[in-house]
Amino acid sequence: xxxxxxxxxxxxxxxxxxxxxxxxxxxxxxxxxYLEPDSLDEALDLLGRHGDDAxxxxxxxxxVNFMKNDLVEPRFVIGLxxxxxxxxxxxxNGLRIGALTxxxxxxxxxxxxxYAPLLAQACRLVATVRIRMMATLxxxxxxxxxxxxxxxxxxxxxxxxxxxxxxxxxxxxxxxFFTGILETVLAPDELVTEIVVPRQPxxxxxxxxxxxxxxxxxxxxxxxxxxxxxxxxxxVDARIALGAVGATAVRAAAAEELLAGKEPNAANxxxxxxxxxxxxEPLKDIRGSPDYKRKMAAVHVVRALQAATTAPHP
Length: 314
Prior knowledge:
alpha+beta, Uridine Diphospho-n-acetylenolpyruvylglucosamine Reductase, domain 2, Uridine Diphospho-n-acetylenolpyruvylglucosamine Reductase, domain 3, Enolase-like, domain 1, 3 domains, five-stranded antiparallel sheet, about 25% strand
């Protein structure tokens, strides 16, 4: 039963000398040093000093499993739980979200529901309550799994990410951040510190659809995030992004351009779906073949656009 209680992963990491006979060889974490900076400057200094030898941990929902399975073997793990200011949200002509804000906070926040309902919708469909209480938005972004729910929602919201190192701070649009499976533009000494969601267009409505024939907490086979604004019977703004359809989440710019100035009807939505999926290169996995995923993506682009244009105004 999911009781919504979070697990204190920092305790696991600080006492990582696991009983081999009890847990089995595969469950043993390789030796590492656990560091807990008291400030962002200290965290960036540690990243700058240790580079590729270090990994950052926030909620730990991905990193711990990677370490248990020897997919990553950091010499240093840098815990961010003391950086409380990175859990804050502020309203500034939009919404600025600290990277350590949990997905559970985002799905239940009235502020997020007001500024970025699409993000709240996507967070609500991530795994289980317990996972959402631990997983952070910055961690999900840096993890860069192409089947995650938050990247397409952030792309469709025109979000950008603040990335910092000792050298500089820079802003990266969401649609330019992801470069491959579990790969991003982040350098080894850089950290995502803030997610910025601009004020959304007046009158826009949104929908997030996650197609998963398996369990409710499984990864998506295909996901679609849509934001549409209609004025005088014509589409005046559209954003469409897809997840689980390739090495990264993707924004469907061609479909957005096709919809501009058109009536929001089924025929135009079908044309947009074809434009959105024409160049997709889905990966074959246990959830389906590339051809199957491409067809499902087209179906769910149409459904997301229909849902967005018929949703109640916020």
